[in-house]
Amino acid sequence: MAINIVSSRNASASHGIKALVYGKAGYGKTYLASTAPKPIILSAESGMLSLRGFDIPVITIKTVEDLTEAYLWALNSDEAKGFETVYIDSISEIAEVVLTNAKAQVKDPRQAYGELIEKMMMTLKAFRDLPGKHVVMSAKQSILTDSVTQAVTYGPSMPGSRLGAELPYLFDQVFQIGVGKTPDGQDYRFLRCHPDMQNEAKDRSGSLDALEPPDLALVFNKILNPSIK
Prior knowledge:
Helix content is 32%, strand content 24%. It is α/β, with parallel strands linked by helices and 229 residues long.
């Protein structure tokens, strides 16, 4: 049996960037899809208004079965070869829709949540491992308060504590989209790529600055071409 050995640089380039982006409502998570290379959006949200100036294809997701069908389409179809980025907006909303549908089909809500955890984790991991494409999943932002110190931290939000806690571990890149102010008082948006005392973030590539412009094509290029500064 022949062993196929490839460079880690080539392997990462062919696998695509897998990233999680979270932030407050209205901070530009949906609009961020427009900055990705040749994107297609999987959405459970009705708020596509921010993308009205773009002609980006959208697949509507209402159930786990919809999500699984979209995955198989992205993996196998010739049509999907025309897209470089699968942008799921947002997994928080999709999980909430799926959980509501699951609860309507069972008597015990705990059973519905257990099924949600199992199915969502399996499907999210499948998208994360989708070969040859960038995959970006957006999520709402949660606020956590330490019961002892009362310290407040921010991270991605999902229904239930377990799914939200496990989410960041699925990705090499975790970005928080935020808004800051210039010295003259103008708002600007950024992607937080490194964690601080309050905000969760992660950059396993080691190629990104603590704050980057909210431009996925630029960020992906920096990750895949470390010589770019």
